[in-house]
Amino acid sequence: MKEHRVIAPLDPGFSPFVLARQEYRQAVEASGKAAHCALVIERHDNLRSRIDFQVLEPNERNINETYRYVERTLKFLLWSRGGWKVMFAGPIEIGRRIRQDYCSTGCRAFDVKLMSTAYRRPFEVDVVELAEVPGSNEVPFRIGGEPDGCRIGIDLGASDYKISAVVNGDVIYSDEIPWDPKPQSDPQYHVDAIRNGIDICALKMERIDAIGVSSAGVYIDNEPRVASLFRSVSNDDFERIIRPLFKTLASEYDVPLVAINDGEVSALAGAHYLGKTGVLGLAMGSSEAAGYFNTSGRLETWLNELAFCPVDVQENGAEDEWSKDVGVGAMYFSQQAVNRLALAAGMGFGEVSALPERLVHVQELMESGDEIARQIYATIGVYLGYSMATYREFYDYTELLLLGRVSSGDGGDIIVDRARAVLAEEFPELGLKIHLPDEKFRRVGQSIAAASLPATEERETG
């Protein structure tokens, strides 16, 4: 493995995915013998993403290394773009292993089940000839940036939800309301909480023209298809009440309502805040949320679930409790990451068991100058610097806006400083920049941006 120049203080074995990719490509070039591969991910409405790359001609010595390179690339493409169908062209032995692993009984059964649920289609892996691989079909959508009228924005988090009342682009009210959605099996708990947020904001304005909702999870056509916030709701109640919830609320309040993944809103918020395009928004909260505002000033129809995209290829990397995969973003850029690193460093939490409260404890220690707390944030900063270079291989961006509770306080400044040090030392040619907005924007900026999501019809006057 290519040696990296900046070491993560609490995770010296961290092995950045981007460096492994660079090393493998160098080996392919040096070999003088390469096999061409193409990967296509197909999602809803016949939308497709394709990438082409070279691999070593497989033999007994390199077959495992080559498969690892292809599989981790597929994993990243699948979760960054989303889809129900994979098409692979390349060495047949690689294609067979992909098909074996990405099935309902394979080691990537979690990925298969979730994508099938999200896109409401059986998951497929087709191994084909290169001539049979279709090209990309990308159609970005244009939502967001609408400042007119009386708007409500809601950002649903794991420990609180943020609400904002926005009138003609000006925030007249915002707040953070505690809730505990994950263990709640009664769907009415979720309905009542969201409706309560809308009603609070409604009291601050003369009318409601539009509602925008930002939430973790997979959202397609204003419907949550997979969302950890509702994990305790039964499948029947989810299909009956939760999946159509936001369409129901739009009908109840008789206004346009758009509900999308919180990562998309973080990218939109970043674009507004920076006044630029080519923005990757990254929120470190209960998990890792991300979104992409492309260089043409539009949101892509991609999944952008970087929480499940690989960033670390060390064999003993952190295991995600949900997917059971190792080295994916959720365990490196979230409250889970803070907790994991704190425990590894010997930090005690006493009777405090909930991750949000443990994060607060680490933040308080950070303010008091605790060295372990400082090392936790420095380690996350090293993770971020290398991962920004990984993300650049799959996203055409130059600006990253960092949001979420993990980046709040003095620890956020350390994360940014260490990430910038990695970029300057290892990847100066990429020209990547990282931005940390002010504290209030970090906490409620997504709910403010969410308010701008829906387009509204012009009201009759006179």
Descriptive report:
The chain has about 450 residues and is an alpha/beta fold. It has two domains: about 35-130, no CATH class; about 140-460, Nucleotidyltransferase, domain 5 (2-Layer Sandwich). Helix content is about 40%, strand content about 20%. It has helices at about 15-30, 65-80, 90-100, 110-120, 185-200, 235-240, 245-255, 260-275, 335-345, 355-365, 370-390, 410-425, 440-450, and strands spanning about 35-40, 50-55, 85-90, 125, 150-155, 160-165, 170-180, 210-215, 220, 225, 255-260, 280-285, 290-295, 400-405, 435. It has a five-stranded mixed sheet with strand order 7-6-5-8-11. The chain has a four-stranded mixed sheet with strand order 2-1-3-4. Helix 8 (about 260-275) crosses helix 13 (about 440-450) and helix 10 (about 355-365) packs across helix 11 (about 370-390). The longest helix is centred in the last third of the chain and has 22 residues, at about 370-390. The radius of gyration is 22 Å and the shape is globular. Mean pLDDT is about 90; it is low at about 460.
List keywords for this structure.
462 residues; alpha/beta; Nucleotidyltransferase, domain 5; 13 helices; 15 strands; 38% helix; disordered C terminus
